[in-house]
Amino acid sequence: MTAFRFIHSADLHLGRRFGNLPEEIRGRLVEARHAALGTLAATARAQGAQHILLAGDTFDSETPTDPVWRQALAAMADSPAHWWVLPGNHDSLGAETLWQRLAAHAPKNVHVLHDIDPVELAPGAMLLPAPLPRRRPGRDLTAWMPGCATDPRALRIGLAHGAVRDFSEDGAGAEGIIPPDRAETAGLDYLALGDWHGQMTLSPRCAYAGTPEQDGFRHAARGGCLAVTLDGPGAPPRIARVETGRFLWLDLALELLPGLCPETELTRLLPGPGPARRDILVRLQAQGRAGLAEQQTLRRTAARLSPEFCHFVLETADLATEFDAADLDAIDHGGALRAAAETLAQESRDDRLAAADRAIAAGALNRLYGMLQGEAE
């Protein structure tokens, strides 16, 4: 048979509101998630693929607004590719109203996978889907695949959403774990998984596609999808990562020591200047030790650079404060301010206090130093 190509994607989470971020950037992030549909369609055209497999969590909730799901269907209809939509844990089949509406309004090239029955994607290619009946099914929904007989001359492609390991301490979720060797035990040519938002290859025949547009700092890469080529039953799949994301989320650790210039170290760590910074979100976690003047320089540098980025937050909870008499003299040589500074300095070093209390004292000392040095908070 001729090679069969398709796009493997998942976890679009259309309709996510990003309520934990500033209002001025939420709209850009929401729009980028919708735009991912067009990007996936363009990727399919470029790769010569006629099918796009969405391995769950196409929608962020079981109750997306009408504009969210209607506009999603319109974007899919605008593509010549066939879209195969698997219910995940965020948009499980328990959302009966959602899936009924999708079925009623779906264009001919959009296929909602309600059942675990094999579906013919194209002549010689069978899809074995595992839709989630509810948010926490409590069982391995791919368990039926090994016993499902298909034409031995046809490709077998599995589509599922869920974890391949249990992250809970008590193992309470173990009943729903997908075995990482399911592709091999079920005789699948490829198992397309969703749920994990970063791309991960579990075996030569099984992978997580990740989300096409990242939504957090956990994965230090732009979103992407997988372009998969199957040359025939039993042949190893050819899997290629394709970058699709607009926004880059960077979780950066800035290690400081007394004597290092925070401005130099921060500039070295950040992506270079230019318009690309507008699409980068940064969480900068300062660590190590730094003096009062160095911490003031760090905050001033961060404040100067932050408007160039889509979002920029500086965290200093893990940055210890070092100071000496000269630092306290810079606050005041005497009087109430000097007394306050000495009290805060003493509390920041008092091992009898809780770590949180020492951190509060050090933070207050830094703010006092900054205000008296003309720093605008």
Automatic annotation (TrEMBL):
The keyword Hydrolase applies. Pfam families: Metallophos (PF00149). Residues 4-163 form the Calcineurin-like phosphoesterase domain. Keywords: Exonuclease, Hydrolase, Nuclease. InterPro entries: Calcineurin-like_PHP (IPR004843), DNA_Repair-Maintenance_Comp (IPR050535), Metallo-depent_PP-like (IPR029052), UCP033093_metalloPase (IPR014577). This is DNA repair exonuclease SbcCD nuclease subunit. Gene3D superfamilies: 3.60.21.10. GO terms for molecular function: exonuclease activity. It comes from the Bacteria. SUPFAM superfamilies: Metallo-dependent phosphatases.
